[in-house]
Design brief:
Layout lengths: L10 H26 L7 E5 L8 E5 L5 E7 L2 E4 L4 E5 L14 E5 L12 E3 L21 E3 L5 E3 L18 E7 L4 H11 L11 E4 L10 H10 L20 H7 L3 E9 L3 H5 L10 H9 L5 E5 L1 H4 L3 H6 L2 E4 L13 E5 L14 H12 L5 E7 L1 H7 L3 H24 L3 E6 L3 E2 L24 E2 L3 E7 L2 H4 L4 E2 L2 H12 L1
Parallel strand pairs: 3-4, 10-16, 10-17, 11-21, 12-13, 12-16, 13-15, 14-15
Antiparallel strand pairs: 1-5, 2-3, 2-6, 4-5, 6-7, 8-9, 11-20, 17-20, 18-19
Helix pairs in contact: 2-11, 3-13, 9-11, 10-11
């Protein structure tokens, strides 16, 4: 009769056996996980709802046109901010080998299974990276479509955008430069005309920014308000939200941090963009009211055109400790403690050999504003827009070069002051400038403007140079309200 032997295992052998079992289980789990998730899609898809839409709907279709799922507010489509929604990529898509052929449809009406090609967007590589990346819509099949109610919808403003850029950096100084009306092709045209890259094109950190206002195609007032305050508003409105409430601008915020503030433009100082960064008014063309409000605004330095609007307020400026000058050289005689308003033309500063250049005003402003607490300075190349409205490509190109010369000054300042960020963008594109097939300066003619002098809803470029630059441009597309939000964050970290 055989006896059953009991195998005794000592403590050391038990530990070794346990380790082996754990390793075997781990290998099995990992292999199963890899097999199950070989094409796992992670992340969120963001969507910027056009302000004219009541409720957005999102649908996902496979490559055969079959609806995989639908989402709308309250059911899968999450509202993160005023106009920003997202939905999460469904788990049941994880094993799809043909994911790159899937399509996303965004509508302002419930189209359900209707396979209208006008509303389809290629998913492509949209969902194949982590949630911290922007998901671009690719292969946009239609720029403008018409819904069942007959309303025309422009999808330039309905491209998905990323979250608001975040940064851990802290800037002492922020310089915001705006080429009014400067679309991407304006920059390319200047490069072709000059036969070399602009200073702005040597900045590696760049991305695209939206321009739409609540009324879709923006004007300069609503665009300036979005850039300066982080709020979308109606066209013509200065420094107020869509409900007419005053909202804090970035210069006002900087002042609460004991930073100096300044504005430099070639247009009149009460014009839309400088007004958007300085005051609050119901209507952009209330120039006299805006000029008076600028005097009361406590901005340390304002340089530009508009003598006709400030001469009448000389006594008011004097009583508010403002030194009023009409020659840039005179600023050397002004006490550094005094606020300064300088106007160097009765209206806009015309582009001629004798004018006060944007470059010189920028150099002066940077020197004047520098202090131990830092500053925020807005600089505008105002008349890129003016001559694009006139479809005058020659004068527009002169303004582009004037603006780029000021960009060089700002970049040089950043090179010498590592605690400074310069942000360069546009408020919108003007003129619908097209450069198809244009390769030399002799081909640059007025006929390349296609929008009859009107603004378009095209996205524009934003460049960032200096501290925190790569954080601002981390997404492929950001909303124009993010310029204020990022600037405020980097000043307050």
């Amino acid at each position: 009769m055989k006896s059953n032997k009991i195998i005794k295992i000592n403590k050391k052998q038990s530990i070794i056996l346990l380790i082996i079992l754990v390793l075997i289980a781990s290998i099995i789990f990992i292999n199963n996980f890899k097999s199950k998730n070989k094409n796992t899609i992670h992340g969120k898809v963001y969507f910027n709802k056009p302000v004219s839409w009541d409720n957005p709907y999102a649908y996902l279709y496979d490559d055969q046109g079959n609806e995989l799922f639908g989402a709308w507010p309250g059911v899968g489509l999450i509202q993160e901010e005023d106009y920003i929604y997202y939905f999460e990529i469904p788990d049941n898509m994880s094993d799809a080998d043909d994911i790159k052929n899937y399509k996303i449809v965004f509508n302002n009406v419930d189209y359900g299974n209707q396979q209208n090609e006008k509303y389809k967007y290629q998913l492509s590589e949209v969902a194949c990276e982590g949630i911290n990346k922007i998901y671009n819509v690719t292969s946009k099949l239609s720029t403008t479509t018409k819904d069942s109610t007959g309303e025309w919808l422009d999808y330039n403003s309905s491209i998905k955008i990323g979250k608001i850029p975040q940064t851990m950096s802290r800037a002492k100084n922020v310089i915001i430069m705006i080429g009014d009306g400067m679309g991407e092709n304006h920059i390319k045209a200047a490069e072709i005309n000059n036969g070399k890259k602009l200073n702005i094109q040597n900045i590696k950190n760049k991305t695209y920014v939206t321009t739409a206002s609540i009324e879709s195609v923006t004007d300069s007032a609503a665009a300036a308000t979005a850039l300066a305050t982080g709020y979308k508003t109606t066209n013509g409105t200065i420094g107020k939200d869509k409900n007419g409430n005053n909202v804090e601008n970035i210069l006002e915020y900087a002042a609460t941090k004991n930073k100096k503030t300044g504005i430099v433009v070639t247009q009149i100082l009460p014009h839309a963009t400088p007004a958007g960064f300085s005051v609050h008014n119901d209507y952009r063309y209330n120039y006299d009211e805006i000029a008076k409000s600028q005097i009361y605004s406590n901005i340390d330095l304002m340089l530009g055109g508009g003598t006709d609007y400030f001469n009448k307020y000389e006594s008011l400026m004097q009583s508010n400790n403002i030194s009023y000058i009409n020659n840039l050289e005179d600023i050397k005689n002004v006490d550094i403690k005094n606020r300064v308003i300088g106007t160097f033309a009765s209206n806009t500063i015309s582009n001629d050999a004798n004018r006060t250049s944007l470059k010189d005003m920028t150099t002066t402003a940077l020197s004047r504003l520098e202090n131990e607490n830092g500053f925020v300075l807005m600089i505008e190349g105002s008349d890129i827009d003016t001559y694009s409205h006139e479809s005058n490509i020659s004068r527009m190109l002169n303004e582009m070069n004037d603006f780029d010369a000021a960009v060089e000054v700002a970049m040089n300042y950043v090179d010498e002051h590592s605690d400074t960020l310069v942000i360069i963008t546009a408020d919108h594109e003007t003129g619908g400038l097209k450069l198809d097939g244009i390769t030399n300066k002799n081909q640059l003619t007025n006929s390349l403007f296609t929008s009859i002098g009107q603004h378009t809803e095209s996205n524009v470029l934003v460049y960032a140079y200096g501290i925190g630059a790569s954080d601002l441009t981390n997404y492929d597309l950001i909303d124009n309200t993010s310029i204020f939000k990022f600037s405020k964050q980097i000043l307050s970290n």
